[in-house]
Design goal:
six-stranded mixed beta sheet, alpha/beta, five-stranded parallel beta sheet, elongated, 15 strands
C-alpha cells in the first residue's frame, strides 16, 4: 500500500484498539500516538529518499506537539497503535512489526554508542506496557507481552509475558490471551512474603532448640529493667 493508504489504515486502527474513541473531534485532539505515527510515515519516506534533515525537522515538530519521539529512520509496520503516547521514545534502529500495541512512557532505546543495529526489534502482535524500557539490540517475540515499568535487556520468546527489573519471563506459550495488567503478579510482594515466612520458620526452630537460653535472656531483661527503674528513681 502507498503512504496515504497506510496512514488511513492507522487512523481506522485507532477505532479498533480504543473503545473510548467516540467521535472525530475526540480523535483529532486526544490521540497523539496516531498522529505521531502518521507524521512518522511521511518523515520515513523522506528519510529513505535522502531528505534526512527535513525528515528530522518534521519529527522534531511532531515531538513538540505530541510528546512522542520517533526517529524517522526507525522501521514501523502496519497497524501499530501507540495508546495515549506521552513520553514514548523509539530509537533510530528500532524495528516494530505489524499490529504492535505500545502504551505511554515506553522507551525502545539503545545501550551502545556504536553504529549499526542497537535498538530493539518488536515482533508482530507484541504488547509493551506503560513505562516499560526495552533496551539494546534484542528481540521481543511475536505476541509477547511486557509488563508496565519493566526494564527488558534480554530477549523475550514468542507468546511470553515478561515483568520486573530486570525483566524475566513468567509465562510462556500464551499467544492470543489479552494483556490483563491487573493480573500480573507482584514479584517484590511475593519475595517479601517468602522472606517473612522463612524468618518465622527459622525463629521457631531457634526457640525450640534454645528454650533454656531464652529463659535466661528473659531473666536478664527483667534485671536490666529493674536496674533502669532504680537509676531513674
Amino acid at each position: 500500500m502507498g503512504l496515504f493508504a497506510d496512514i488511513k489504515e492507522d487512523f481506522s486502527n485507532a477505532y479498533k484498539n480504543d473503545p473510548a474513541l467516540n467521535s472525530r473531534i475526540d480523535f483529532l485532539f486526544n490521540y497523539p500516538g496516531v498522529w505521531a505515527i502518521a507524521w512518522y510515515r511521511l518523515a520515513h519516506k523522506l528519510h529513505k529518499a535522502n531528505f534526512k534533515r527535513l525528515a528530522r525537522i518534521i519529527m522534531g515538530f511532531t515531538q513538540i506537539t505530541t510528546h512522542i519521539d520517533i526517529h524517522p529512520a526507525a522501521t514501523i509496520g502496519k497497524r501499530v497503535f501507540i495508546d495515549h503516547g506521552t513520553g514514548v521514545v523509539i530509537g533510530e534502529t528500532s524495528v516494530i512489526e505489524d499490529d504492535v500495541l505500545i502504551y505511554q512512557g515506553v522507551t525502545l532505546g539503545g545501550v551502545s554508542l556504536t553504529h549499526g543495529k542497537r535498538h530493539p526489534t518488536i515482533k508482530q502482535g507484541a504488547v509493551i506496557g506503560a513505562g516499560a524500557k526495552v533496551l539494546g539490540n534484542i528481540t521481543i517475540g511475536e505476541y509477547a507481552k511486557i509488563g508496565a515499568n519493566s526494564v527488558v535487556v534480554k530477549e523475550v520468546p514468542d507468546c511470553s509475558t515478561a515483568i520486573g527489573i530486570p525483566a524475566h519471563v513468567i509465562e510462556k506459550g500464551r499467544c492470543k490471551d489479552p494483556f490483563m495488567h491487573n493480573m500480573l503478579p507482584d514479584i517484590n510482594k511475593e519475595m517479601f512474603e517468602y522472606l517473612l515466612k522463612r524468618v518465622a520458620v527459622l525463629e521457631h526452630i531457634l526457640v525450640e532448640d534454645n528454650k533454656d537460653l531464652l529463659e535466661q535472656d528473659l531473666e536478664l531483661e527483667t534485671i536490666y529493667e529493674s536496674f533502669i527503674k532504680a537509676m531513674k528513681s
